[in-house]
Amino acid sequence: MRNPLTDSSRNDDNVPSSIYGYRVYMVALSATWASAMYGYDSAFIGGTLELPSFKSSYRLDGSNSTALSSNVVSMFQAGAFFGAIFGFFFAEYFGRKPVILGSGVIFAVGSALQLVGHIAELYAGRVLTGLGVGPFGWIFEIMLQIALVFGFWVNYGVNKNIPSTTAAQWRIPVGVQLIPAGMLLLCMSWMIESPRWLASKNKIAKAQKSLAWVRSLPVDHPFVVNELAEIQAAINQELETSGERRTMLHVMRECVAPGVRNRILIGVLLMLLQNLTGINSINYYSPTIFRSIGFTGTSVGLLATGVYGLVKMGTTIIFMIWIVDRFGRRGPLLVGAMGAAVAMFYLAIYSQLSKSFDQVPPSDAGSRTAVAMIYIYAIFYGFSWNGIPWIFASEVLPTRVRTIGMMCAVCMQWLAQFIIVYSLPYMISSIKYGTFYFFGACTVVALIFAYLFVPETKGVPLEDMGVLFGADVSVYATRARRNYLEFKVARDGAVDEGRLEKRNDIHLENV
Question: What region holds the Major facilitator superfamily (MFS) profile domain (predicted)?
Answer without folding.
Answer: 27-458
